[in-house]
Amino acid sequence: MDAFNQRLNLFESFERFQDQLEADNLLKLQHLEPSTRYYVEASLNGKREWTEWAYDEHELDLLKQDAKDCGFACKVEEVD
C-alpha cells in the first residue's frame, strides 16, 4: 500500500504543478514574429558541394566562414 500512496502523492503533486503552470500562462506558446531565413549554397568550381539553412545572423556567419575555410564559393539567398 505504501508504493501506491507514494505514486498517488507524486501524481497529485504533478497535477498541482500543471495547474500552477496553466494559471501563470506558462503552457501557452508565445507568438513569434516571422524571422528571415537564409539558404546557403557552397560550391567549388561551379559544382555544388553542400547547402544549408541558417536561421539567424550568427548561424549565417558560421556557415559562410566554413565555406571560406574550405575554399568554396558561397552564395546566400534570403528567404522570408
How does this model look, in words?
The protein folds into two domains: 1-29; 32-80, no CATH class. The chain is 44% helix and 29% strand. It contains two helices and three strands; from the N terminus they run αββαβ. A three-stranded antiparallel β-sheet has the order 2-1-3, with helices on one face. Strand 1 and strand 2 form a beta hairpin. The longest helix is centred in the N-terminal third of the chain and has 22 residues, at 2-23. The model has no long low-confidence stretch (mean pLDDT 88).
Write a brief caption for the model.
By secondary structure, this protein is α+β, with helices and mostly antiparallel strands. The protein is 44% helix and 29% strand. A hairpin with a 2-residue loop joins strand 1 and strand 2.
List the helices and strands and how they pair.
Blueprint: H1 2-23, E1 37-44, E2 47-54, H2 57-69, E3 73-79
